[in-house]
Amino acid sequence: MASLAPAQPAPAHAPRPLFPRTSPRRGRTTAARAAATAAGAGEWAPGSWRARSARQIPEYPDPAALEAAERTLEAFPPLVFAGEARKLEERLGEAAMGRAFLLQGGDCAESFREFSADNIRDTFRLMLQMAVVLTFGGQMPTIKKSLSYYFIVIFLWTGLTCMYAIQVSDKLDPSELVKLCEILNPHNRPGRLTIITRMGAENMLVKLPHMIRAVRQAGLIVTWVSDPMHGNTISAPCGLKTRPFDAIRAELRAFFDVHEQEGSHPGGVHLEMTGQNVTECIGGAKAVTFDDLGDRYHTHCDPRLNASQSLEMAFAIAERLRNKRDRTWTNLMSRVVA
Questions:
Q1: How far apart are the first and last CA of the chain?
Q2: Residue 76 domain flag
Q3: pLDDT of the residue at 153
């Protein structure tokens, strides 16, 4: 069985405007534009993002078509209701404090061809099985969220009750991370901001401690989540992309090791996985090899853990969660006795 037991220590460019410079269009403005104009400095409004600059944004060559699309979207009901967002924010706040653990899993890219009742059932069943392992084996309440369009919308929905997730690599300077956190969560609300680390085991051991210390020194509350998938993608001899199970497990081990060292809370895990018996990631208890990749390689983007590998990873995570809880109780009781 896989284990996450501690291992032995081991050109920027100037931002450009969100929209191309165009002459103002006469006529009625959208509610978002009007709210953006009316909002004061630092106040949120549906269009206040227009006052910001961005490094990555699509160009909209036809302002009239853009405004028409905005008006259409304004007339639609919300994709996510406020009550759902508030509930998730509360639960992510528990994870930030070490009182819950986020299990986020699913496909990197979903296709209409594979969008069937059987596939949905298999992945949903796997998520429930993993949650049971984490909840009872790890003795930790588990927040179950799929990598679906619905969940992504919650993370992207802008507004006063919105939540954000920042994916960070080893290349991000800790001071820049602090600035991002302060911009996205100016009121420092627990559960509003999730930081997803993706940098490989070796970089994790070196870079993550500095990020945690910078965030803590700034007094910020964030939910730390590990994405051990994207930093461990390699090319197989046959040319297919794959991910070694051992490398994924090593990054998760490093994630827990660093948080244990820093006295912070590992808040969750982000896995690209499927309930299908695919052969896309090598390794695991069933020892998928490079030669096996072509048997059932069905991903439309990045390689996923199959059901067996995902459950094996869940047991390894549960072991670390249980050990963390046992140490917490031991330390608490020792202080009570003293």
A1: 38
A2: no
A3: 43
Q: What is the pLDDT of residue 256?
A: 97
Q: Which of 146, 180, 158 is nearest to 48 (CA)?
A: 158
**CATH for 197:** 3.20.20.70
Residue 42 domain flag? no
pLDDT at 149: 44
* Average pLDDT per block of 10 residues along the chain, 338 residues long: 59 40 42 46 66 77 92 84 84 94 85 78 90 90 67 44 83 96 92 94 97 98 96 94 96 96 95 92 93 90 94 95 78 63
Q: How far apart are CA 155 and CA 89, in angstroms?
A: 10
Is the residue at 150 inside a domain? yes
Looking at the 3D structure of the chain, how many domains does it have? 1
DSSP assignment of 56-95, as one string?
S----S-HHHHHHHHHHHHTSPPSS-HHHHHHHHHHHHHH
Cα 29 to Cα 319: distance, rounded to the nearest angstrom:
56
CA angle (279 as vertex; 273, 283 as ends), nearest 5: 85
Question: Considering the domain boundaries, does residue 120 fall inside one?
Answer: yes
Taking the complete model, does pTM exceed 0.85, yes or no?
no
Closest-CA residue to 315 (of 265, 258, 252, 261): 252
What is the span of the domain harbouring residue 256? Answer: 84-337
From CA 25, how far away is CA 64, in angstroms rounded? Answer: 8
